[in-house]
Amino acid sequence: MLKDIDQGLPQSLERLFELLRIPSISADPDYAHECRHAANWLKEYLETFNFTTQICETEGHPIILAQELSATDAPHILFYGHYDVQPVDPLELWHTPPFEPAIIKDASGCDVIHGRGSSDDKGQILTFLEACRAIYNQTGQLPVRVTVILEGEEESGGEHLPGFLEVQKNSLHPDMAFICDTDMATPDVPAITAMVRGLVGEEVTIYAANRDLHSGLYGNAARNPIQVLSEMITALRDGQGRVTVPEFYEGVPHIPEEIKSKWQEIGKTDEALLSPIGLKEAAGEKAFKAVEQTWCRPSCEINGISGGYEGAGFKTVIPAKASAKISFRLVGQQDPLKIRKNFREFVKSFIPQDCRVEFESHGASRAGMVSLNGPVLGTVCDALRDEWHCETAIVGSGGAIPVVNDLQRVFGIESFLVGFANVDDCIHSPNEKYNLRSFHKGIRSWVRILYALQTVKL
Amino acid sequence: MLKDIDQGLPQSLERLFELLRIPSISADPDYAHECRHAANWLKEYLETFNFTTQICETEGHPIILAQELSATDAPHILFYGHYDVQPVDPLELWHTPPFEPAIIKDASGCDVIHGRGSSDDKGQILTFLEACRAIYNQTGQLPVRVTVILEGEEESGGEHLPGFLEVQKNSLHPDMAFICDTDMATPDVPAITAMVRGLVGEEVTIYAANRDLHSGLYGNAARNPIQVLSEMITALRDGQGRVTVPEFYEGVPHIPEEIKSKWQEIGKTDEALLSPIGLKEAAGEKAFKAVEQTWCRPSCEINGISGGYEGAGFKTVIPAKASAKISFRLVGQQDPLKIRKNFREFVKSFIPQDCRVEFESHGASRAGMVSLNGPVLGTVCDALRDEWHCETAIVGSGGAIPVVNDLQRVFGIESFLVGFANVDDCIHSPNEKYNLRSFHKGIRSWVRILYALQTVKL
């Protein structure tokens, strides 16, 4: 099987190149027909290896739903990817045209697939689909049941995916999800992104006097809402960098030392993370390293603050109100609604009697976290180790990945993010590339994973 | 003398009405010739009672310099006022045309002089000048030496006055200044504004990462400058409402209890000050009442704060910088430059090693405070008591009055602010008025003051 993949690599690449040549830029309405072109191409492609397919219309770009469910007794996996790509501006910075894919040597002599979408996400999704294709062509059947969902709006808001998933809620019954849209730990070390932080966004506005005041006439005597707001913000963290909202750390999981030590091994040191942004010391909880603070620890950030006179020069005003946009990043089982409630109580406790506060919600999503002790994670890790000859890194993502939340909410399933991209792939930038090695060994990895999942006990 | 004033009141009013009919709106270039008209009118008027006069040109409206120095051995007082007025929009809200002065009855049956400039400041300056005129006409000489400076840009920035004063620095040698541009304590109680707060303005910008960051990817680990700024602002006041900048209270004077208790008697209660602006409790130092906090205690106010995303909706950013505009109101002998220096040191002590801070200065002026035990204050108080038959209130002004600082800086003299306006005079608004009683008893007051000053020992 794996030898067939090696021998068929030129043909696999040719299929990838066909897809890469379609400029399916979802953000630009002028390219809507190209998005449909890509969807149609994928539909026909999937049908060549026994998937039943539908092009599902949305108010935006279509979503492809494809299934190969013949392995009746095996687990049912849902594979999510996206066929749309980022715009290509500024075009003059590309070394070769973005939609004329080519294999070139990078600075270190490695072969890379050059072109928009090679890494994000067409190259990545074809690692999975070429694996399915090879297995089907060799055996006439996949080892597990597979549902494929490929959307066309991931790069432009993805607003129609959640509604589509809701519609499928009672007809699809996947056991788990796989997503191939993330990085490896290093070019040699595979990674599974097993923890994705959730988010609670809140806007807080504190009102004091019934109008803006002259700070000469009223300065000292009139309550200043900027001062009140600052005091509340200051109190949100204690001297150890811990968030002080009551019950905030309920549901925060303990991450085993062997997982965290791997993060240092793969180079996620404080210096590596902070030095590129001009900083030296991790600013969060003192007991945790920078990578831990962003991957497995919850946080509270002030995303914006506003009040009084903000223009050039000076105006001696005491404003009637001041506001801040504040977000919490959540991990593990933290409950976003409970945190919102406790945060609001916390803020109210800082409001003097003659001020009032208003809140506005800006989203609430749970963290996505797979079971670190569950049977799937270990199985996938082993399969990846067999292909890459080293231990798989269990990593996190500090930012939210909405589809992970959507899949959790609609189907109640965990998402395993297994990707073969690299941090230097220039996704969203000129000269996007995907290592040829990622493409080749990515296909081989999925063959191993699919067979390994065949016997996993859920 | 006083009887002459009573008998001559109709003629005094006619002279005031002539001046009020000149629409000397300094902010509107279309009225520049009217400003000059007012200056010329005042020049000719002053010459009718023995003042030597000059119209001093500036790049804006002219300044009148007039002197009557024949009382060789008597003190030399500088009287400052302004002949320009505020614009009159919205015109439709005026009950009678703004530049057609008239005496009308107000709601309580009092006679008031109605028209733009009646209170701010033409009516007030003519209380002083009509007093001089009456004394000269009766005696052929003023009891003290008098220099009059009348500017035409007080309502539009006053930018040329400081330069004019500097030019006069070595030719004028006044002993003290009088300004008639303030309110009485109540319609029955005269007031001397003896303390005017100074100001130090500072803009503080705190820089952290070298660019705006995604708060998912970096939240917790990357220093958030809004958080740092909030912590610094919080620390600027202690739990008792005192400003914590080192040595901040050096030079803050003790105000005798009899002066402060008068403030409550004239109605400056916490409720009277705070209830109109929708507040209940004085927010500054707990040991002081609201009026004390604004008149005789220094303060620190946050006039503006800005950082991160401030638009509609939400953006999960950790900004590269955050800034605040912060001002200190000063009293007594507080040193603005020392406070600026100590404040900057204070801020720097809050800056983590991988942040940096920049400061921008926005003005530094000392408080204006007359000696509460000096011979002039008591003399003027006594003269006012004789006219109004009650004790004069010694009051403060929370906001800066730039000319007080200019006179202190250039001539090294104290300014005594003696005004007969009332809080309901609608200065800067439609239907400006000046109580006829203020005009009449104001002239009488100045006669008493000028004679009393004749023998004051400096």
From TrEMBL, chains A, B:
Molecular function via GO: metal ion binding; peptidase activity
Gene Ontology biological process: proteolysis
Matches recorded under InterPro entries: Cyt/Met_Dipeptidase (IPR051458), Peptidase_M20 (IPR002933), Peptidase_M20_dimer (IPR011650)
All residue ranges annotated as the Peptidase M20 dimerisation domain in the record: 197-353
Matching Gene3D superfamilies: 3.30.70.360, Zn peptidases
Keywords annotated in UniProt: Hydrolase, Metal-binding, Protease
NCBIfam families, A to Z: PRK09104.1
Identification of the protein by name: Peptidase M20 dimerisation domain-containing protein
The organism of origin for this protein: Commensalibacter intestini
Lineage start: Bacteria, Pseudomonadati, Pseudomonadota, Alphaproteobacteria, Acetobacterales
